[in-house]
TrEMBL record, chains A, B:
Gene3D superfamilies: 3.40.1360.10, 6.10.250.240, RecR Domain 1. InterPro entries: DNA_Rcmb_RecR, Hlx-hairpin-Hlx_DNA-bd_motif, Rcmb_RecR, Rcmb_RecR_Znf, TOPRIM_dom, TOPRIM_RecR. It comes from the Bacteria. It holds the Pfam family Toprim_4. Signal peptide: none annotated. This is Recombination protein RecR. GO terms for molecular function: DNA binding; zinc ion binding. It comes from Aeromicrobium phoceense. Residues 79-174 form the Toprim domain. CDD domains: TOPRIM_recR (cd01025). Belongs to the RecR family. Keywords: DNA damage, DNA recombination, DNA repair, Metal-binding, Zinc, Zinc-finger.
Amino acid sequence: MYESVIQDLIDELGRLPGIGPKSAQRIAFHLLDADPEDVKRFAQTLVDAKTKVLFCSVCGNVTVDTTCRICADPRRDDTVLCVVEESKDVIAIERTREFRGRYHVLGGAISPIAGIGPDQLRIKELLGRLQDGMVTEVIIATDPNLEGEATATYLMRMLVPIGLKVTKLASGLPVGGDLEYADEVTLGRAFEGRTAVG
Amino acid sequence: MYESVIQDLIDELGRLPGIGPKSAQRIAFHLLDADPEDVKRFAQTLVDAKTKVLFCSVCGNVTVDTTCRICADPRRDDTVLCVVEESKDVIAIERTREFRGRYHVLGGAISPIAGIGPDQLRIKELLGRLQDGMVTEVIIATDPNLEGEATATYLMRMLVPIGLKVTKLASGLPVGGDLEYADEVTLGRAFEGRTAVG
């Protein structure tokens, strides 16, 4: 229906996660109407990000240097290591200002359906980082979903025998939500993990 | 929080219509993980589309030539002109295969809030196309919302005195929907526009 350059643009946009065909069309026409300089800058930003962004050689987080800002920061606590799936999880945890240790980014979660097993994740690198005995606690902060839980279980089985303190983030009611809207699994977990207040 | 090249990418993506901050972050990390060749091709597609796509000198539709495919097609009916807001409306109508006339793309709708008045739309060009008396019917196919209706009213007041047949697309129940889920305005319009069946 469309001229091929327009269809190509719609197709490329439609390949992005969470963008359906209607949104892709809407964004394409927005870009066709936009200032040519804005579109050029957007295209350049894409190429720049892809060229400049590397993965930290220590933790696997995104970085523009060989090691990321957190690994390079001497003030962080070397005895606690928090294991997450993705770089964006690092940012989410940093925003809480609750954690001053180091991170390890796995690069995903175990998912047999997507063909991702432990070998596709940065687990060997994690074990390597634990060898010098500096780390005394590993906090597993994978996503609270099927793949994240499977990954957490795998990591626990591997790390507990080493004699490390292994902890997991608490499951429970999201703060600011309504109890009645919590799903039954979350509510169940909130009961299991209830804490004494008096 | 992020390295500036990553933040720039998230910001650029967040400027696209319908992309919130969370989606922008998700898409950015998807692109950082993607094959560099794929990202380069995406950036090139953006620049290509923006460089090659023009607006038809006759109807205002998107095109890669001076006149669009529809205006250039000698088999279309020159006596009926369908007025739409955007190029994507042309595609939507073409998909129905119900219309064999010509189009006129206004480039938007009257919206005092967005500062768009009749002068910002291609209405002068529309009147120019009607001067040779070839067109006998103008079908107004603006969006069935506030701005679209305002634009339709403006066009009707301008075109009816010229002595043209002016029609508007029917409002009513969307086909395939449930009557109970139709909003009251749509249902009211469906009553107003009811047709005799026997």
